Amino acid sequence: AQSVTQPDIHITVSEGASLELRCNYSYGATPYLFWYVQSPGQGLQLLLKYFSGDTLVQGIKGFEAEFKRSQSSFNLRKPSVHWSDAAEYFCVATPGTYKYIFGTGTRLKVLA
Amino acid sequence: GAVVSQHPSWVICKSGTSVKIECRSLDFQATTMFWYRQFPKQSLMLMATSNEGSKATYEQGVEKDKFLINHASLTLSTLTVTSAHPEDSSFYICSSAGGAITYEQYFGPGTRLTVT
Known about the structure:
The complex is a heterodimer. Chain A is mostly beta strands. In chain A, 0% of the residues lie in helices and 52% in strands. The radius of gyration of chain A is 13 Å and the shape is globular. Chain A starts with a strand and ends with a strand. The mean pLDDT of chain A is 93. Classes of the chains: A mainly beta, B mainly beta.
């Protein structure tokens, strides 16, 4: 079955530290991949997306993600985390339709 | 990205009453809209997919008679929770698709429903 896995439910980092959020997908072919962020009580904001081409994708707010076909992964990274980055992060995949497959989410806590 | 609004942003209603949530695609024509439900500290659960001018397609386990979806125009979809009960309390999020970027959904800010 098609699925998206985010192994880390919670992650805590200190402000200024680097961040990596993991995402693995299970599909027969390369899906379209997205990372969204959700602040408490808010809707989802798109951070970045991968459709094809360059496997290192740059997004907003200093985030980037790297698509690795061999590992079926699409990990999100940020070199220096800010306190305002504390939120819920969702990895999303779609096999080429409008229907999204959501990961379970990773809740990021940032220590001052 | 495209802008999607939801109204109201939060609503409190009494058990047994119905409540309508509006989802508007403000700057593009959304051929498809989605309705999600999100429980606290959980991921989004797709409830239904609606295409303009046709009946919504509900996901397995979602009661279509309780959650009425209407997608009457390319910019507006509504979700009506009928005869609401406390267990319907949740965060409801809509999204729109069909814009310039293939397969991308644009999410509304969500509606917090509390049924007392």
